[in-house]
Design brief:
With 282 residues, the chain is α/β, with parallel strands linked by helices. Helix content is 44%, strand content 10%. The protein has nine helices and five strands, in the order ααβααβαβααβαβα. β4 (208-213), α8 and β5 form a beta-alpha-beta unit. The protein is globular and about 50 Å long. The chain binds thiamine diphosphate. Thiamine diphosphate binds at residues 33, 35-36, 39, 71, 73, 120-123, 150-153, 179, 181, 183-185, 243, 257.
Length: 282
Amino acid sequence: MPLNEEEIKELHKKAREIRKGIVEITFTAGGGHIGGSLSQTDVLVALYYKYLNIDPKRPDWEDRDRMILSKGHGGLGWAVILGDKGYFDREQLKDFNKTGSPFGMHLDRLKVPGCDASTGSLGHGLAIGIGLAIGAKKMGKSWRTYVMMGDGELCEGSVWEASIIAAHHNLDNLTALVDRNKLMIDGPTEDITTLEPIDDKFKVFGWDTIRIDGHDFAQIGNAIEKAQATKGKPTVIICDTIKGKGVDFMENEFRWHYGGVDSDLRDKALESIDRYYSKILV
Ligand SMILES: Cc1ncc(C[n+]2csc(CCOP(=O)(O)OP(=O)(O)O)c2C)c(N)n1
């Protein structure tokens, strides 16, 4: 069922909170991968607050949906969501990436409840997700596996090897999501290695493909529901997003792939987020 207006409003409110949390941790941690954490936020918020079948009180529940953040450097943004969902005490995030904290810049599945796979070295999450999806089929389990990748990550050959395998095994219980913010660590993806047409590439590899605005909850919801209903093949949802989304001076600036904010810049970033949502949440 398509998301209704009220649900969309609630998701926007949650995304505002998460974006502010990302800014706060970037401040307290002394820096972080803020640009890509902000671009991935709306898609992850839709998954965590609407679609994933999970129980934060039982992170090891066998029948839970699996979620892998293959773009592991987005761990800062992911941790804010996991903390908000109640996987752990979110006060712990004040020590994010500090010595002794369970939270490194890339989340570790042995230290962070809710993290199904340790990532950070790009290009591996899809293959891990395929293993989980094949495992579910073999065991007759109905849980689904979701894997979010960065677009720069698609430069890794292992992504395409994995894509062939996913289609070969008809993994309709696997959904890949690409955070298509068009920037990677040091510039626009298309200047570094041409990726487009991404949809056609996955299609010829045997996937069902959907392309959406990754900041539009109605489109995100429809795409996830279509992927859930598709039989016989895996689905990839290519989510067109904006790196730094919500903080005007960070948007579309690859220099904000990783950065720090002092208290002045933090306040400016928080004000910008409020301005952004004042237009959406009228
Ligand atoms: C195998 C590997 N090579 C290089 C890196 C360093 N690295 C970290 S983030 C990044 C850019 C990733 O770009 P993208 O996937 O588009 O991420 P996003 O823009 O969503 O943050 C790179 C090259 C890495 N983490 N792993």
